[in-house]
Specification:
Elements lengths: L1 E6 L9 H8 L5 H9 L3 E3 L2 E2 L11 E6 L15 E4 L3 E6 L16 H8 L23 E7 L2 H12 L4 E9 L6 E5 L2 E3 L7 E3 L8 E9 L3 E8 L6 H8 L23 E9 L6 E5 L4 H11 L1
Parallel strand pairs: 7-14
Antiparallel strand pairs: 1-4, 2-3, 2-4, 5-6, 6-7, 8-13, 8-14, 9-12, 10-11, 12-13, 14-15
Helix pairs in contact: 1-2
InterPro entries: PsdUridine_synth_cat_dom_sf, PsdUridine_synth_RluA-like_CS, PsdUridine_synth_RluC/D, PsdUridine_synth_RsuA/RluA, RluA_PseudoU_synthase, S4_RNA-bd, S4_RNA-bd_sf
Pfam families: PseudoU_synth_2 (PF00849), S4 (PF01479)
Organism: Halanaerobium saccharolyticum subsp. saccharolyticum DSM 6643
Length: about 300
């Protein structure tokens, strides 16, 4: 069972509950929320309401989504496997795949493909997210490490929580930077003007640190490597948008997309972890996807 809960702020009062919740949670569509309301899976201060209910300040909203094992099925799909043993599997994720099932994505996710590829995945995250220790946005490509058993899952989750995993990304950004390398230390929270976005803000935010260095410069664009020390939602996309250099193709955070990229050009390039069984540090690297390479070659020519 999955549960969502939040308290209504003064600025949000007066909205219809279904519209408000859909704006709060990117992974839940408005029609899906309406279905949950009809099924009495949404409460306000512990009471059942209908979809026309208008929220007021300090209302406590709760959504309950019951997961059914039958909802998840194995589906044969191409997987770009970088490494695999009895404990973990590491893939180079394509940019057109959601990591785990969610409303609107039931049988076209990385989890569906993994279930068809391996015999076992850890069960710690429930039936919808077996083996998933961390995630990448749908339109971000690159390295994703998955646990095949509960022991490996617990050990990897501990490393991610303690920030001992080294995560490096390649991002093609708009414009040119003033420095060859640098550190972005800017807290991130939900954008108060658009609840489906994140933003750099002082209040109601969490510490976020990204370190970058220039890999290659072009006339109007720059390829950077970014090491993230924290794992906030959309962190790299938000930080470079904040600097005035959005990731190419990321229209959500201000890209002009003059290169006509079909997605944000962000790629999880390198991942360094301790193997959950041997304890030895292992480093994985993933080649850029063809669409990313093509745009770089276009810029070089």
């Amino acid at each position: 069972m999955e549960e969502y809960s939040l308290k209504v702020e003064k600025k949000d009062q007066g909205q219809r509950i279904d519209k408000f919740l859909a704006s709060e949670y990117d992974d839940l569509s408005r029609s899906f929320i309406q279905t949950l309301i009809e099924e009495k899976k949404v409460t306000v201060n512990g009471d059942i309401v209908d979809k026309s209910y208008k929220i007021t300040e300090n209302d406590f909203l709760k959504i309950i989504i019951e997961e059914k094992e039958s909802e998840i099925k194995a589906v044969e799909m191409d997987l770009d496997v970088v490494y695999e043993d009895q404990d973990i599997i590491v893939i180079n994720k394509n940019a057109d795949r959601v990591v785990h099932p969610a409303p609107g994505h039931h049988d076209d996710t990385i989890v569906n493909a993994l279930l068809a590829h391996v015999d076992n995945l850890s069960a710690i995250n429930g039936v919808k997210r077996p083996g998933i220790v961390h995630r990448l946005d749908k339109d971000t490509s690159g390295l994703l490490i998955v646990a095949k058993n509960d022991k490996s899952h617990k050990e990897l989750a501990k490393q991610f929580k303690n920030r001992t995993v080294d995560k490096y990304y390649y991002a093609l950004i708009e414009g040119n930077l003033a420095y060859k390398k640098g550190k972005i230390d800017a807290p991130i929270g939900r954008d108060p003007k658009n609840r489906k976005k994140m933003a750099v803000r002082k209040r109601r935010s969490k510490k976020a640190i990204s370190r970058f260095k220039i890999i290659e410069e072009f006339k109007t664009h720059t390829l950077v490597e970014v090491k993230i020390e924290t794992g906030r939602t959309h962190q790299i996309r938000v930080h470079f948008s904040y600097l005035g250099h959005p990731v190419v193709g990321d229209k959500k955070y201000g890209s002009k997309n003059t290169l006509n990229a079909k997605r944000q050009l962000l790629h999880a390039r390198k991942l360094a972890v301790k193997h959950p069984t041997t304890g030895k540090k292992i480093v994985f690297e993933a080649e850029l996807k063809d669409d990313f390479k093509e745009i770089l070659n276009k810029l070089r020519s």
